[in-house]
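Priority: medium. Attachment 1 of 2:
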């Protein structure tokens, strides 16, 4: 049955390619649908790789079973081999009577939603509500872990979004000794893991393994060149530390905390504080390590090597966080804007926004199917006479088409030989922007006198006549003789003689 398996793998690969092409042709409007499509395509690509590897193993024929099967079919009795395989199939179905048959034609097609069911997607359980299907980052828990670290600056969530990838002073005042704790190692590991996971969930079609390998190689080069920020090689000192001479020299200097105090009472109270006691213990442990190093140089070298390996692990996570945060600047800025917006909202407004988002993401399948059926109905409209469509998307009745004369064409040369169907549309177009713009291009400003004129030559002749009449009227008014009566009233000569004949003057 090796040849049948080979045929099945070829069919499976073709069905997978068809499923990918169908989904690539889609244009999802919502980010949820787009992510669901991308994750499905990613799963299909993974299956193509698996099936291709199986097919290559069959073609390699390491054990020679494929060659033997081809030889038995080509040289032996064909019917004997046929009945032998048929008996094997019957025996399999006798042992497993309820075994489902895999239908490749339906396996990679989109399933039609059942009426009354809610549209579910594989991305629904990938993101938290704060992430909004990959639009924003959700660092609330990591912010809590950051605030519990020793020696960190208290930052609000907005400030943390801007500085979570900064591990050097002055933004991050943590000392190098505080970074070597297990708590800090766990924190940077969780942050780097979250950013990697977020990138995989939001960009399933990108080659992220290649990106991660590039980050690892870049870190190795930077570490060997001692160029990782904040993790340069420390100079080892043998014996107790020398007296510190830092500070102004006027006050009291605390060697354990590396801090100067102006007042003696403040210094005494500081000696009993938890911070000083912890710093003194760390200093004492360092001195004991140095003393043991003098007694046994080999153990000291081993201890420094272990410390350097731990520093490398922490530095590698910090380096990865910086690079991953740089690739997600868009989501980072959107997260900041979203947090600021939500801080200005009331609890009720937040709840309404969540309800609207949930209603949009869980749209009933029946509604979408009705919309699809409506669109299918629009495509199947029978309109052989090419009648205009009414408001409901259906052709208007033929008698109404004849009544309005929509079959009569009216052409307007001023509008660029645009054809208007029906007298009503033709009469309306004289007040529309297209016709007015055409008249202005001809130099005609008074458009009210050019109704029913569609020819460019006729419009220009009429405009020239109007201009000549205006000039003639103006010249006649300038040359008109003015007369004055006995009361001092000034009037044209013609009006004066008319009034005089009537005996009114």
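Attachment 2 of 2:
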């Amino acid at each position: 049955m090796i040849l049948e398996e080979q045929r099945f793998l070829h069919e499976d690969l073709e069905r997978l390619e068809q499923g990918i092409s169908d989904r690539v042709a889609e244009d999802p409007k919502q980010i949820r649908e787009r992510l669901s499509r991308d994750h499905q395509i990613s799963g299909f690509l993974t299956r193509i790789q698996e099936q291709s590897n199986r097919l290559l193993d069959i073609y390699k024929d390491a054990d020679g079973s494929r060659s033997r099967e081809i030889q038995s079919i080509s040289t032996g009795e064909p019917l004997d081999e046929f009945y032998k395989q048929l008996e094997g199939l019957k025996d399999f179905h006798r042992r497993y009577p309820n075994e489902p048959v895999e239908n490749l034609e339906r396996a990679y097609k989109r399933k039609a939603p059942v009426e009354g069911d809610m549209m579910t997607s594989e991305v629904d359980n990938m993101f938290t509500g704060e992430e909004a299907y990959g639009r924003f980052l959700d660092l609330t828990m990591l912010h809590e872990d950051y605030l519990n670290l020793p020696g960190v600056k208290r930052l609000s969530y907005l400030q943390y979004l801007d500085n979570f990838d900064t591990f050097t002073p002055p933004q991050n005042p943590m000392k190098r000794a505080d970074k070597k704790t297990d708590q800090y190692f766990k924190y940077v590991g969780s942050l780097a893991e979250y950013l990697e996971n977020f990138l995989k969930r939001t960009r399933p079609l990108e080659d992220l393994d290649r990106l991660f390998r590039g980050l690892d190689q870049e870190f190795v080069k930077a570490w060997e060149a001692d160029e990782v920020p904040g993790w340069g090689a420390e100079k080892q000192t043998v014996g107790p530390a020398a007296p510190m001479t830092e500070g102004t020299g006027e006050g009291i200097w605390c060697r354990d905390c590396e801090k100067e105090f102006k007042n003696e009472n403040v210094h005494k109270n500081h000696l009993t504080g938890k911070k000083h006691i912890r710093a003194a213990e760390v200093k004492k442990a360092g001195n004991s390590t140095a003393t043991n190093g003098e007694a046994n140089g080999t153990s000291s070298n081993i201890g420094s090597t272990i410390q350097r390996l731990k520093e490398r692990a922490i530095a590698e996570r910090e380096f990865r966080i910086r690079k991953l945060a740089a690739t997600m600047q868009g989501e980072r800025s959107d997260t900041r804007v979203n947090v600021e917006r939500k801080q200005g909202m009331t609890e009720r407004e937040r709840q309404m926004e969540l309800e609207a988002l949930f209603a949009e993401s869980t749209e009933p399948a029946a509604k979408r199917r009705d919309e699809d059926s409506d669109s299918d109905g629009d495509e199947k409209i029978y309109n052989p006479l090419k009648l205009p469509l009414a408001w409901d998307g259906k052709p208007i009745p033929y008698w109404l088409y004849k009544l309005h004369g929509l079959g009569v064409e009216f052409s307007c040369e001023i509008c660029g030989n645009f054809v208007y169907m029906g007298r009503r549309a033709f009469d309306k177009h004289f007040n529309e922007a297209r016709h007015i713009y055409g008249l202005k291009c001809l130099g005609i400003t008074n458009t009210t006198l050019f109704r029913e004129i569609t020819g460019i030559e006729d419009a220009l002749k009429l405009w020239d006549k109007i201009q000549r009449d205006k000039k003639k009227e103006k010249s006649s008014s300038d040359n008109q003789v003015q007369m004055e009566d006995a009361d001092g009233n000034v009037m044209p000569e013609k009006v004066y003689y008319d009034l005089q004949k009537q005996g009114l003057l």
